[in-house]
Amino acid sequence: MTWSIPSDFPLKSLIRRKKYISYKGDTNEAAPNLFKQDFKAEKPFLKWATDVTEFKVKDKKVYLSPIIELFNGEIISYSLSDSPNFKQVTDKLEGAFKRLEGDQNPTLHSDQGWQYRMAKYKQMLIDKGITQSMSRKGNCYDNAIIENLFGTIESEMFNLKKYASVDELKNDIKEYIR
To answer: Which of 84, 101, 126, 167 is most buried per CB count within 10 Å?
Structure first.
C-alpha cells in the first residue's frame, strides 16, 4: 500500500528552524585564511591548527582544545576544561610555546570563534612570532583537519564506552592523546 499527500493539501512546518547566532559582542577582525584548505606541511613547526570541541557525560560537559602539528598529525599541546573559557585557550597556547625553538614561527589556523578573535589571544601569537590564520565564517571545511581529529577521537574512543564521570573521560582523553 502506498500513501501520498493530495496536491492541494497545504503543508506548513509547525517548528521553525533556529538560526545559528554566534557571539555578537566586541571582537577583533578575523585573520585572513592563509591555509585555504591546504593542510600539508613540508616540515615541523610550519603549520598548526586548533579548535574546541565538547563531549557530554550525563549532565556535564568536557571541552577539549588541542593544537595539531600538520607535518605529522601530532598533538603538540591541548587543554581540557569543564567550561569553554579563555584560560583553556591560553593554557593550550603556553604549552605549545614551550615546544618552539629558535626561529620556529608557525602559522596557527582556527575557526572564527570568539576566543581566537580576542586581543589578548592575538597578542600572545604576535609576541611569539606566530602568524594567525582563520577559516571563513561558517565554513567547517576550512578547518577540516581539526574537525577530522575530533571525529576520530569520537569514533575510536568516546563512542566505544559509556562514561560514568567527566574525570573518567578526561583520563581517557589524556591517554588517547598520549
So the answer is: 84
